[in-house]
Amino acid sequence: MIRSMGIRLGSSLTRTGAAAALLLGSVASPAAVGTAEDAAVPSACALGNGRDQIQHLVYVQFDNVHFTRDNPNVPSDLEQMPHLLNFVTGNGTLLTQHHTPLISHTGTNFVSSLTGVYPDRHGANVSNGFRYFNADGSSSSSTMFGYWTDKVIQFSGNPPDPNYNMLTADGHNAPAPWVPFTRAGCNVGFSGMANVVLENTTTDVTTVFGPGSPQAQEAAANPGQAAADFVGIAVHCATGDALCSTANGGAADVLPQEPGGYAGFNALYGHKYVAPQINPSGPLLDLNGAPVQDSTGHVGFPGFDGLSAPVSLGYAAAMQEHGVPITFSYISDAHDKHPGGGAMGPGEARYEQVLKDYDHAFDTFFTRLQADGITKTNTLFVVSADEGDHFVSGPATPAGCDGVTTPCTYPQLGELTVNLTGLLATQAGVTANFAVHSDTAPTIYVRGNPARDALLTRTFGRALLGLDVTNLISNQTEKLALYVADSVEMKLLHMVTADAARTPTLTLFAKPDYFVTTGAATCPTTPGGCVRQDPSFAYNHGAVGTDMDTTFLGLVGPGVQHLGVKNDVFSDHADTRPTLLALLGLKDTYSHQGRVLAEVLVSRALQFGRSLENYVKVARIFKMINAPVGPLGLDSLTVSTNAIDGGSKVYAQLEDQLTSITMRRDALALQMENALEGAAFGGTAIGEGDAERLVDRGQALVSEVHRLAKGQGQGQAEPDN
Questions:
Q1: Which tens digits make up the pLDDT trace of 512-569?
Q2: Which residues contact 531 (CB under 8 A, 6 or more apart)?
């Protein structure tokens, strides 16, 4: 679900508006089915860790599709996609304690999964849009969704921010996720994945093809067709591969700051150039046999919301069959704004039909891959979702409906939209000049960028914590805020980047029923005042809550244990990248804030040897201290909130402690990171004594922050070694 500045530029849709437009139709026609001969892997593509014969990677990431139930009586999204769920649980492992970074939204979560690092190392600290401070103290809006080498996207009339959108901790353009694959001789295909495809026709077409190019001229004259032609789909090729030749429409794959250099590589950008190479016999069809086109009839990329399962998986299958053995696929969510109405609740007839269509698409997809010789014996399958959601509604009717035999309806459905401007003015007398990136976890930019003005920051934060709202579903009065984080806490949560201008003054983590925005400085006299219910959206995410920041990760293929559903391993999106690279025998040029999920891999897939047990011990404490929604991160949010809600002395004391904790955590996490990376990718075993020392220090730090969150004063200083 995309909102506000998260709307993809160049698309008239908001990721969900056309997601079912291409769902109906017949079973895939013969023209849509490839052959095993078609699926031959380029001979130069070198995958595998020397112990497993992996020839393909099929990576699928949903937008807001759930393993757990939103209505306890209604089977969950994955339960209603048995062809997918049974494939994963019957042949591999499904991790159900898989988590997001913060703020938990599509852009941040996809990029963390693709890179193996958190926002402080990839730049997308506020997604899907963000604001940045200008020299005069004002702030301007931008979007995280831009091509990998974009600078901060400057909307008309706004001052520029010269930094890269995708930004390392030292201020460089972040290493691109496809590089290890192409350097290994493998072509990599993307459908809809964030920032690795062109995202819009206003900046990205010019970035890649150049100003004055025919593509840029088309974007200016006919943006609708240009979006269908150039946005959303890409194949990044190995050096010299004919697939991306200039004769096929290939353009230079330019990464000016890639570590180690990146010269001589080409890519195909857009359906116009990709489709003829992966479906040379005619127009590309989705898995239902329908031509791929957008909602207005433009043949080509259907828009990000149009990447339903039949469409996105159709792209992936055709790529796999025609020389692209590595595919990453985005699938739009199943529950928001499909044709026929607004948001849908679990068990509603329209929702049920979308899930049936998605399940049919996976059945067709796996059958087609099987015919192509792409199977669990030679292919690594990775399936996940960007985040969970909090469903906002009153009770379903009729009582006990299950959606299977009895459809559900929701008379009182929709998120509760809050006018923060009006609440602050009427309840707290706060009329400061500020801007908001609207969200369930809104980021607030007070004019003048007073991040270092402790009094103003604390005063504004305390006002946020004091706000009362009327829950129009329960008719109860409650506090709006769960937590408030200032820049000190955001740094601990990996939300502060090398671009200081994009660090908000404060982040409000609201109760999950609420979507917070701005408005008039007064509240209407209608019930709820500055709160209204919006039936257009019924699923909130971004804030802190197990239903929002917990999702799933499924792994199938050589080197993966057959464990079925596994509930006892904490993981997060940063762990996905190092795990798949370890299985594929590839390396990044940087270290990860994630770790290899060794507990679910067979021993032959690993190089840890007798240090496997030590690796797992260190990896688990590493996540406890470093994951944004790990125990240390969540307790630190309580400490930050208590600091802001306390007096000036309490605030100063707790802020100093949080600063110290962050510094010590970062130093310890770096030691753990180096040990884990050395074991996973460098052949350096972790000794038992080293593992015990790291674990003891990590546990001491977790305990210290937990005591602080319980109001037990200063924690004990951690030993230096």
A1: 999 999 999 999 998 899 999 999 899 999 999 999 999 999 999 999 999 999 999 9
A2: 416, 417, 418, 419, 469, 470, 471, 472, 514
The neighbouring-strand residues paired with 94 are 554, 565
Residue that the structure tokens 């994963």 belong to: 88
Candidates 584, 62, 523; CA nearest to 335 is 62
According to DSSP, the residues that pair with 553 across neighbouring strands are 95, 384
659-675 mean pLDDT? 98
32 has a pLDDT exceeding 50:
no
- Vertex 329, ends 104 and 317: CA angle to 5°? 165
First to last CA, the chain: 46
What is the rounded CA–CA span in Å between residue 354 and residue 360? 10
Pairing of strands 56-62, 326-331: parallel
pLDDT at residue 20 in the model? 27
Least Cα distance to 417 among 464, 469, 372, 466 occurs for 469
E strand or H helix at 680, and its extent?
A: helix 648-681
Q: Do 567 and 93 touch, CB atoms closer than 8 A?
A: no
Tell me the DSSP string of 124-172.
-SS-SEEEEE-TTS-EEEEES-S-TTPBSP--TTPPP--SBSSB-TTSS
pLDDT band at 456 (very low <50, low <70, confident <90, very high): confident
Dist. CA 437–CA 124, nearest whole Å: 14
Q: Which two tokens stand for residue 133?
A: 């401070």
Whole-model pTM: value is 0.93
Between vectors from CA 611 to CA 608 and to CA 616, what angle results, nearest 5°?
A: 90
Residue 42 has pLDDT above 90, yes or no: no
Report the DSSP beta bridge partners of residue 291: 285
Strands (E), 492-546: 506-510, 514-517, 531-534, 539-540
Cα–Cα nearest to 29, from 367, 345, 289: 289
Q: Minimal CA–CA distance to 488: which of 464, 506, 470, 466?
A: 506
Residues 6+ apart with CB under 8 A from 588: 116, 175, 180, 577, 581
Q: What is the largest CA-CA distance in the chain?
A: 73
Q: At 342, phi and psi to the nearest 5?
A: -90, -145
How many C-beta atoms lie closer than 10 Å to residue 512's C-beta? Answer: 25
For residue range 63-80, list pLDDT tens digits in order.
999 999 999 999 999 999
CB 464 within 8 A of CB 484: yes
Strand partners, 437: 443
Q: With a cut of 60, say whether residue 26 has pLDDT above it.
A: no
Token pair listed for 241:
């591969």
Q: What does the DSSP assignment read for 436-493?
A: EE-BSS-EEEETT--TT-HHHHHHHHHHHHT-EEEETTTTEEEESEEEEEEHHHHHHT
Asked whether the beta carbons of 519 and 442 are under 8 A apart, the reply is no
Contacts of 475 (CB under 8 A, 6+ apart): none
Q: Is the pLDDT of residue 317 over 90?
A: yes
Residues 83 and 370 sit within 8 Å (Cβ to Cβ) = no
Continuous segment of H or E residues that includes residue 618: helix 612-626
CA atoms of 598 and 560, how far apart (whole Å): 9
Amino acid at 224: G
* Interval 126-142: pLDDT, tens: 989 999 999 999 999 99
Of 632, 634, 655, which is closest to residue 702 (Cα–Cα)?
632
